[in-house]
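idk why but the lab printer keeps eating my pages so im just putting this in chat instead. protein + heme C:
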Amino acid sequence: MIRPAALLLILFSIIGAARADPSAPPVPIDSLIAGIDRVTVTVQDPVYKTAKRFEGYPLATLLRKAWPEVDAWAAEGAELVLTAVDGYAPSMDLARALSGNGVVATRDLDRAPEDPWEPFAKGASKITPAPYYLVWTDVASDDPHYRWPYKLAQLSVTSFGQRYGGAAPPPASGERAQRGFRLFVQNCMPCHAVNQIGGHTGPELNVPKNVTEYWAQHHLRAFIAAPESYRLRSKMPSFGHLPETDRNAILSYLGAMKKRKVCGDAPCR
Ligand code: HEC
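predcted complex ->
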C-alpha cells in the first residue's frame, strides 16, 4: 500500500519531468546527423580569416532533432553549450542559435573529399577543425554573440540560472539591476567576466574590485556609450545604440554587484 505522501511525491516528480526544464545532457553530434540533408555555405571565416565554402548540417535542424522541446527552452532564455573534443565549451544564447543560420560543417569544399580539412596553426602545432566546425552565414566574424568552435563534438543545453547564477545580482537589488543583469549577459558577457563568469577579451568587472569602486559613474556612463572617446583604438565596441534606460540598467547591475563578490579560490579583498 503506497502512502498518500509517497503518491504526492511520485505525482510531483512526474509533473517536474514533464515541465520544460532547460537542462539537457550532452548529445554527440555523431548521433544526430543520420538522415539530415547536407547544405553548402560560404562564410567569412574568423579562423582562416578569409571567405570559405563548407558542407554541413543546419544547426537548428540538429537541435530540434536532439530535443523536440528546444524552442520552449529558448523562449525561457536557455543557453546552448558547444563542447569540443578537448573539453573547451563556449556557450551562446539558444534562441539566437535557433534563429541564426548556423551550419555544423563536416568538410571544406575546396579540399579533396578524402582530405577534407585545411590545417591551420594553433600555437606551435597545426590542427584541423575535425570532426565538426560550427560556422555562421550572414554574421560578422567578430560578432561576440556567435561562437565558432572547431573540433566540436557535442551539444547540450543549460538553463540561464545554471550558467550565469554566480553572476546574478543579490536578490534585494531591485528590478532595474535584475533587468541590467540580463542586458549585461547579452551585450557584455561575451567579452567581460563578473565573478569570473563570462569572456576574457575585456577585463573582469567585479573582483577583486568592482568597476564602480574605481570609475566615477559619469565616466563609466560615457565610456560605455563611446569607448573611443576615452581610448584610441579601443577594442570595445560602442554601446551608444542601446537605449539610455538599458545602459542605466546595466550600470545599476554593475553597482549592485559590489555587494556580491565571488573570487573562487582567490580571496576577495
Ligand atoms: C567585443 C568585446 C567587448 C564587449 C562586447 C564589451 N566590452 Fe567592455 N571592454 C572590452 C575591452 C577589450 C576593454 C579593455 C579596454 C579597451 O580596449 O578600451 C573593455 C573595457 C571596459 C571597461 C573599462 C574597465 C576598466 O577597468 O578599464 C568597462 C567599464 C566596460 N568595458 C564595460 C562594458 C559593458 C558595460 C559592456 C556591455 C554593454 C561591454 N563592456 C561590452 C571589450 C568589450
